[in-house]
Amino acid sequence: MTKMYVIGLDIGTTSVKAVVFDRHGKVIAETEQLNKSFYPAPGFVEQDPEVLVSASVFVLKAVIEQAAISADQIFSVGFSCAMHSLICVDENGHALSRAMIWADGRSSDQAERLLKEQGLSFYEKTGTPIHPMSPLTKMVWMNETDYAPFKKAASFMSIKEYLLFQWFNQRVVDYSMASATGLFNGKTLTWDEEILTFVNVKKSQLSTPVPPTYVMTGLHHIIADYIGISPDLPFVIGAADGQLANLGSGAILPGEVAITAGTSGAVRQWAKHFRASEKHETFCYMFTENTSIIGGPTNNGGIALEWLKKTLNYSGTYDEFTEEAARIKPGADDLLFLPYINGERAPLWNQKARGTFFGLSITHEHAHFVRAVLEGITFNLYQIAEALEQLAGPSEKIYVNGGLARSPIWTQMLADIFGKKVYMSESHHSAAWGAAWTALVALGEANSFQEIKENVPLGEVVEPNMERHAEYQSIYEKYVRLTVDTAKYFSEKEKKSLPTF
Question: What's the pTM?
């Protein structure tokens, strides 16, 4: 039977998704299972790795059945996964701990101290900003708190590595997931011995780094039988969800920027080789031996809008809620919002940052708050993009995906603030398509990563209103001044020096 389909398995923070594509990127079927996060203490955010492995098995079986295809018609399965998770694992490959995910902030104090003591020396080698999101700072916390699973661990894995070990009995990690740990030297593509010594971890406790085209066969027969596929079906390790979202949207040339705006968000651009920012403003995660993704993630995308909707006790839909912003002029009548309600990664890299409404007036109504929050989210993305341009050059085309991309008001706002055309993906499964395309490249069914540009189903193009862009430039100048003026209040050292009354 002719092979016609490829599957992208995307293990995200919110859900595990499996998507069946034809070789041109058309979605044939999709299945999703929501993930549960646990919050055992303030700042702690964990997920159960066993549940995530089971969910991945379930969605693969379900999506093949939904697509009504046979196993013989499938080329391969490619993996995408969220970054920065950390699991302590025993000598038999069983989890000793839940997975600490990127949002876990328990190592905030360690990150702040590490940045002061080590300066940027670690960051300059790894491209991973010093921040509680990274396994590096989580391991420092584990050392300092005598975390029992850490002391007993035979190895340390991300969620993806743990799944691969359960399925294929292989301890491997792709370059991008390794890069996101803060332990991996992006210049040498090896685990950094100095950093490993610092966190009291041996190289033997970490997985073997491999390129994104690494092929695995020999799926555990019980899992293969349950899904209904052959154990010999090739699986391709793929990469992290950020890199694959760029690939899946077609943003892989100089000047092409991908913006993901879901619960959180990110601005990313493809680059050659390893590039770390002198100002510690952006990340640089390797993809292949000579290509990387540089960019900046934000903790505060749609989560800020969700918070506002809940706080205002708005009972309508999200579409109706964002429509309120259309009644208000750009600038929300001088109401500015710093969207740091969940701490912040780029551009501040400060988990202690907090959100701010500035310029409140008695004339402001709830619609002003909606507009201000949407603009604050977008100004933050624009500020990240400005830092990115210092490394990668000016942005020419903007590709967007994620939940907020479904809002016409927000996508127009994005085009107006950036002053660029915004290209929409027909599918919101860019990371899954990137994983699937990587599988096709690995198997020789596609000639190159760049060829995906001919196989990305694009939706509408949003044109910027340049008059509004000029207006937004003036508003953005005020926003930047406000970020600079308030930044000192998010530092413990500065707070102690402030007078009390």
Answer: 0.89
